[in-house]
Specification:
single chain; 342 residues; Quinone Oxidoreductase, Chain A, domain 1; Rossmann fold; 2 domains; six-stranded parallel sheet; 12 helices; globular; ADH_Zn_CS; L-threonine 3-dehydrogenase; metal-binding
């Protein structure tokens, strides 16, 4: 079968013929239809410092996907050939304290699909049945392909109650924009998003943010005044990993405000902890999705009319992966999709 492979320990990706995956005990074999390109895939393609530590070649990339079930191992129940499915890309041990307590998203032995084992940038992929999410209600294949990052957005946005609250989101990448759409849909009063990319700020406006702030030319304080906020933001969603973004967020929270942190910084940086303490601000780290409460929430949000179509801005046949990756790396885009049926 065809697959996108990190074949060598150097920058680049290769479209190669590789053996079809063999169905193992408790696993499901899936014919891949669409895949989404993630920032992680860009790091692996560039073979930066993180990728050199995290991956071993050869490796089939990809963890954002949708496909149709082809076969299931003996004993697998609840999943049948023909089912339309996405996959939870965090494979957990099932035996540690957190897994046994139902907190699988906190497993310390997590293995990443397309990072620690061959992934979904291929014509076929296998996954443990416990990692397969069956779409019981029809979902657009492009949207189903990005359930993984959509889950990051939902997990972050729904970490704290949003009804009637004023929300500040720093970072208008695809996940930040999806989080803005979720916050709006979930009943936030005002949703303000910040970035330095005019393209992505315009994209955020399409999902209904109250205000999109280009922090190169304007400040969050001006945004607060424009919206008539007297006491600051109730909820913050930090999606950028940028030190200046988190410091600005902390400075503009109301007393008792709550911040969910998804953005990964490239290095350590100082934060005004005195402000966090004296304003009694809650900081909560977010990683991945809650298995499977977040997945239920995602499906219900879409059934309830949440529209993610503005976030998807690029679609390519998998043979044109170089152009697709270049667009995704360029920053003037939302989510970029590869079509594996072409």
């Amino acid at each position: 079968m065809k697959a996108l492979v990190k074949a060598k320990a150097e920058p680049g990706l290769w479209l190669a013929d590789v053996p079809e995956p063999v169905l193992g005990p408790g696993e499901v074999l899936i014919k891949v239809l669409r895949t989404g390109i993630c920032g992680t895939d860009l790091h692996i393609r560039a073979y930066d410092g993180w990728a050199r530590q995290a991956v071993r070649t050869p490796l089939v990339l990809g963890h954002e996907f949708v496909g149709d079930v082809v076969d299931v191992a003996p004993g697998v129940t609840g999943i049948s050939p023909g089912d339309r499915v996405s996959g939870e890309g965090h494979l957990v041990c099932g035996t540690c304290r957190n897994c046994l307590a139902g907190r699988r998203h906190l497993c310390r032995s997590t293995v990443g699909l397309g990072i620690g084992r061959d992934g979904a940038f291929a014509e076929y992929v296998t996954l443990p049945a416990a990692n397969v999410w069956v779409h019981r209600v029809p979902v657009d294949p492009d949207v189903a392909a990005i359930f993984d990052p959509f889950g990051n957005a939902v997990h972050t946005a729904l970490s704290f109650p949003l009804v009637g609250e004023d929300v500040l989101i720093t970072g208008a990448g695809p996940i930040g924009i999806m989080a803005a759409a979720v916050a709006r849909h979930a009943g936030a009063r005002n949703v303000v998003i910040t970035d330095v990319s005019p393209y992505r700020l315009r994209l955020a406006e399409r999902v209904g943010v109250s205000l999109a702030v280009d922090v190169r030319t304007s400040g969050v304080e001006e945004g607060k005044r424009a919206l008539g906020l007297r006491e600051g933001f109730d909820v913050g969603l930090e999606m950028s990993g940028r030190p200046e973004a988190l410091r600005t967020m902390v400075a503009n929270m109301t007393h008792g405000g709550k911040i969910a942190l998804l953005g990964l910084p490239s290095e350590e940086f100082p934060v005004d902890v005195a402000r966090v303490v004296t304003s009694m601000i809650t900081l909560k780290g977010i990683y991945g999705r809650e298995m499977y409460e977040t997945w239920y929430a995602m499906s219900v949000l879409l059934e309830g009319g949440l529209d993610l179509s503005p976030v998807i801005t690029g679609r390519y046949p998998y043979q044109d992966f170089e152009e697709a990756f270049d667009e995704a790396a360029g920053g003037r885009c939302g989510k970029v999709i590869l079509d594996w049926t072409a």
